Amino acid sequence: MKMTLHPTLFFLVKVLVSAILIALISGLAKAFPKWAALLTALPLTTFLSLIWIYAETKDLALLETYTRDVLIWVLPSLVFLIAAIYLFRAKIPFIVTLGLSTGILFAGVFIFEKLKILK
Protein backbone atom coordinates (compact mmCIF):
# COMPACT_ATOMS: atom_id res chain seq x y z
CA MET A 1 0.00 0.00 0.00
CA LYS A 2 1.49 3.29 -1.14
CA MET A 3 1.23 6.19 1.28
CA THR A 4 0.79 9.61 -0.30
CA LEU A 5 0.42 13.00 1.26
CA HIS A 6 -1.93 15.68 0.09
CA PRO A 7 0.10 18.10 -2.11
CA THR A 8 -0.36 20.97 0.33
CA LEU A 9 0.76 18.83 3.28
CA PHE A 10 3.73 17.53 1.29
CA PHE A 11 4.71 21.12 0.45
CA LEU A 12 4.54 22.04 4.13
CA VAL A 13 6.71 19.01 5.04
CA LYS A 14 9.29 20.10 2.45
CA VAL A 15 9.32 23.65 3.78
CA LEU A 16 9.57 22.51 7.40
CA VAL A 17 12.39 20.00 6.84
CA SER A 18 14.33 22.44 4.65
CA ALA A 19 13.86 25.33 7.08
CA ILE A 20 14.94 23.22 10.05
CA LEU A 21 18.13 22.16 8.26
CA ILE A 22 18.94 25.74 7.26
CA ALA A 23 18.27 26.96 10.81
CA LEU A 24 20.46 24.21 12.29
CA ILE A 25 23.32 25.01 9.93
CA SER A 26 23.10 28.77 10.55
CA GLY A 27 23.07 28.08 14.29
CA LEU A 28 26.05 25.75 13.97
CA ALA A 29 27.91 28.46 12.03
CA LYS A 30 28.02 30.68 15.12
CA ALA A 31 30.07 28.15 17.08
CA PHE A 32 31.68 26.06 14.33
CA PRO A 33 31.80 28.03 11.07
CA LYS A 34 34.07 25.53 9.33
CA TRP A 35 31.71 22.60 9.98
CA ALA A 36 28.64 24.62 9.03
CA ALA A 37 30.38 25.64 5.80
CA LEU A 38 31.14 21.99 5.08
CA LEU A 39 27.47 21.08 5.49
CA THR A 40 26.50 23.97 3.24
CA ALA A 41 29.10 23.05 0.63
CA LEU A 42 27.82 19.49 0.50
CA PRO A 43 25.16 20.79 -1.90
CA LEU A 44 22.52 20.53 0.79
CA THR A 45 20.01 22.44 -1.31
CA THR A 46 20.67 20.16 -4.27
CA PHE A 47 20.46 17.09 -2.05
CA LEU A 48 17.11 18.17 -0.62
CA SER A 49 15.81 19.18 -4.04
CA LEU A 50 16.74 15.78 -5.48
CA ILE A 51 14.87 14.07 -2.66
CA TRP A 52 11.78 16.24 -3.14
CA ILE A 53 11.80 15.93 -6.95
CA TYR A 54 12.22 12.16 -6.76
CA ALA A 55 9.50 11.82 -4.13
CA GLU A 56 7.11 13.78 -6.33
CA THR A 57 7.99 12.49 -9.82
CA LYS A 58 10.25 9.39 -9.70
CA ASP A 59 11.54 10.83 -13.02
CA LEU A 60 15.22 9.90 -13.35
CA ALA A 61 15.59 11.82 -16.63
CA LEU A 62 14.38 14.98 -14.89
CA LEU A 63 16.82 14.33 -12.03
CA GLU A 64 19.68 13.89 -14.50
CA THR A 65 18.82 17.15 -16.28
CA TYR A 66 18.39 19.00 -13.00
CA THR A 67 21.71 17.70 -11.61
CA ARG A 68 23.58 18.61 -14.81
CA ASP A 69 22.09 22.11 -14.76
CA VAL A 70 23.06 22.56 -11.10
CA LEU A 71 26.63 21.59 -11.98
CA ILE A 72 26.69 24.20 -14.74
CA TRP A 73 25.30 26.88 -12.38
CA VAL A 74 28.01 26.15 -9.80
CA LEU A 75 30.54 28.03 -11.91
CA PRO A 76 28.87 31.47 -11.83
CA SER A 77 27.97 30.82 -8.18
CA LEU A 78 31.67 30.56 -7.39
CA VAL A 79 32.10 34.12 -8.66
CA PHE A 80 29.47 35.23 -6.11
CA LEU A 81 31.35 33.50 -3.28
CA ILE A 82 34.75 34.83 -4.31
CA ALA A 83 33.41 38.38 -4.57
CA ALA A 84 31.69 38.08 -1.17
CA ILE A 85 34.90 36.86 0.48
CA TYR A 86 36.89 39.84 -0.79
CA LEU A 87 34.15 42.36 0.00
CA PHE A 88 33.70 41.04 3.55
CA ARG A 89 37.47 41.11 4.00
CA ALA A 90 37.45 44.75 2.84
CA LYS A 91 34.85 45.46 5.57
CA ILE A 92 32.19 46.46 3.04
CA PRO A 93 28.77 46.59 4.77
CA PHE A 94 26.76 43.37 4.67
CA ILE A 95 23.90 44.58 2.45
CA VAL A 96 26.31 46.23 0.02
CA THR A 97 28.36 43.03 -0.13
CA LEU A 98 25.28 40.95 -0.88
CA GLY A 99 24.15 43.41 -3.53
CA LEU A 100 27.53 43.66 -5.24
CA SER A 101 28.13 39.91 -5.07
CA THR A 102 24.69 39.26 -6.54
CA GLY A 103 25.37 41.77 -9.31
CA ILE A 104 28.63 39.99 -10.06
CA LEU A 105 26.77 36.67 -10.07
CA PHE A 106 24.31 38.01 -12.64
CA ALA A 107 27.18 39.37 -14.72
CA GLY A 108 28.67 35.86 -14.68
CA VAL A 109 25.33 34.38 -15.70
CA PHE A 110 25.06 36.94 -18.52
CA ILE A 111 28.54 35.98 -19.76
CA PHE A 112 27.66 32.28 -19.55
CA GLU A 113 24.47 32.92 -21.52
CA LYS A 114 26.35 34.87 -24.21
CA LEU A 115 28.94 32.10 -24.47
CA LYS A 116 26.11 29.54 -24.65
CA ILE A 117 27.54 27.67 -21.65
CA LEU A 118 24.20 27.54 -19.84
CA LYS A 119 21.88 25.46 -21.99
Report what the structure shows:
The structure is a single chain. With 119 residues, this protein is an all-alpha fold. The chain has two domains: 1-58; 59-119, no CATH class. The protein has five helices and no strands. It has helices spanning 7-31, 33-41, 44-57, 60-89, 94-114. Helix 1 (7-31) packs antiparallel against helix 2, helix 3 (44-57) runs antiparallel to helix 4 and helix 4 crosses helix 5 (94-114). The chain is globular and about 50 Å long. The model has no long low-confidence stretch (mean pLDDT 88).
Number of strands: 0
Radius of gyration: 17 Å
Would you list the SSEs in sequence order as H and E?
A: HHHHH
Q: Which structural class do you get from the secondary structure elements?
A: mainly alpha
Number of domains: 2
Q: In angstroms, what separates the terminal alpha carbons?
A: 40 Å
Unreliable stretches (pLDDT < 50, length at least 5) are none
Count of helical regions: 5
What global shape is seen?
A: globular
Share of residues in strands: under 5%
Mean pLDDT: 88
Described by strand count, sense and barrel closure, the largest sheet is:
none
Summarize the structure.
It is built from five helices and no strands. The chain has 119 residues and is mostly helical.
Topology at a glance:
Layout: H1 7-31, H2 33-41, H3 44-57, H4 60-89, H5 94-114
Helix pairs in contact: 1-2, 3-4, 4-5
